[in-house]
Amino acid sequence: MTGAAVLDDKERLAVADPAGMLDEIAGAGDQARSALRIAQASSLVGPQPEVVVVAGMGGSGLAGDVVAALAFASSAVPVLAVKGDRLPAFVGPGTLLVAVSFSGNTAETLSAVEQGLAAGARVVAVASGGALAALARGRGSPLVTVEAPPGRMPRAALWSLLVPVCSAAEAAGVLPPLRDQVLAAAGALDAEAAALGPAVPTDANPAKQAALRLLDRLPVVWGSGQLGAVAATRFRTQCNENAKVPVVSAALPEANHNDVMGLEGGLGPGRVLVLLRDEAGEHERDGLRLAAALEALGVDDPVVRRAGEGHGLVRLARLTAFTDFASAYLAIARGVDPTPIRTLDRLKAAVSAASR
Ligand code: F6R
Q1: DSSP H or E stretch at residue 55
Q2: Contact 126, 109 (CB under 8 A)
């Protein structure tokens, strides 16, 4: 059975989500609190760097986007997320390189660390184990070992990864003290799980409603402000990996300079626009820009989720709770198991076999 009926049926949901992705999403608040305890017990303090680079891929790499977005408004030093084997040429002894990989075995992240170490960067590793943890131990680099209960997928470990990456930036004086903000974000994740979780029926549950609107349509996702843009990326990657659907995502106001042309003539029956708005992070003209884009495209009923008030991490938590629940419900409404990522696994295995 697919579609609306399954989303409000506890037993059928359990069958449709055998590995418990919905429970993982609902547990994000506890995950953040536990990650805070682990990060606080780690020795991360180091000198203030000239630049921070966060290297990581996929669900792990998103932590770099978040730290860059948090640092945007307040950090005196640049913070850059890198997704690939190579680091920029400026990486050197003044660089703090935070390497983040849930498995600890992602080839691109390992190459980046090797380049960073060779260039004299100070490395902090965030991993559950694997080659990255071994490399950090061997080189005497600080390591935060993230929790990895059996079956947890990297994308379901966002807060386990994000909190220590933020803590490494905080310990180097790049982000302000984050303890209270992490605890507040954990509270927001709990509140969103109570509002968007599987027990809340579709007629009162915006994440289930969004999933049903997206069923058999191409989601076009725009995020506003630095954090809204990260949430738009998260929405795309969560829909890709959980629901196994393609998504178009973009950041505002840049979308007004190109993406709108791809939608000229309107969304039509095959596309739905999703707006992830972080109004606290928007420029004063962004609301006007967005209204003009909707008017020009004739869109009068986009799916809208707002980040609300509070610290950046709290606002991000509200948006990622929505992206994560909506993508898992979309998977289930499509009759797809949200957890396995067979094509991605096959691809990693093929690349690793070919490079041996
Ligand atoms: C899987 C997922 C992927 C991985 C990526 C990198 O759930 O989210 O995007 O995050 O393949 O692997 P790790 O995170 O182990 O470095």
Answers
A1: strand 51-55
A2: no
CA 124/CA 102 separation, integer angstroms:
14
Answer yes or no: are the C-beta atoms of 299 and 273 closer than 8 Å: yes
Q: Give the list of residues 6+ apart from residue 342 with CB closer than 8 angstroms, or none.
A: none
**Residues 236/151/98/322 CA torsion (nearest 10 deg):** 30
Interval between CA 154 and ligand 1 midpoint (Å) = 5
- Which one-letter DSSP state was computed for residue 86? P
Q: Which residue lies with its CA nearest to atom 1 of ligand 1?
A: 154
Residue 81 CB less than 6 A away from ligand 1: no
DSSP SS3 for 46: coil
DSSP 8-state secondary structure symbol assigned to residue 88: P
Cβ-in-10-Å burial (0-12, 13-18, 19+) of 19 comes to middle
Q: Three-class SS of residue 224?
A: strand
Per-residue pLDDT of the chain (356 residues; tens, 9 = 90+): 557 789 999 999 999 999 999 999 999 999 999 999 999 999 999 999 999 999 999 999 999 999 999 999 999 999 999 999 999 999 999 999 999 999 999 999 999 999 999 999 999 999 999 999 999 999 999 999 999 999 999 999 999 999 999 999 999 999 999 999 999 999 999 999 999 999 999 999 999 999 999 999 999 999 999 999 999 999 999 999 999 999 999 999 999 999 999 999 999 999 999 999 999 999 999 999 999 999 999 999 999 999 999 999 999 999 999 999 999 999 999 999 999 999 999 999 999 888 87
* C-beta of 49 in contact with ligand 1 (< 6 A): no
CA of 155 to the centre of ligand 1 (A): 6
Say if residue 18 is preceded by a cis peptide, omega within 30 of 0: no
Ligand 1 mutation target, pool 60, 244, 324, most atoms within 8 A of CB: 60
Stated pTM of the model: 0.97
| Residue whose C-alpha is closest to residue 299's, from 255, 276, 330, 269 | 269
**Token reading at 231:** 């949430």
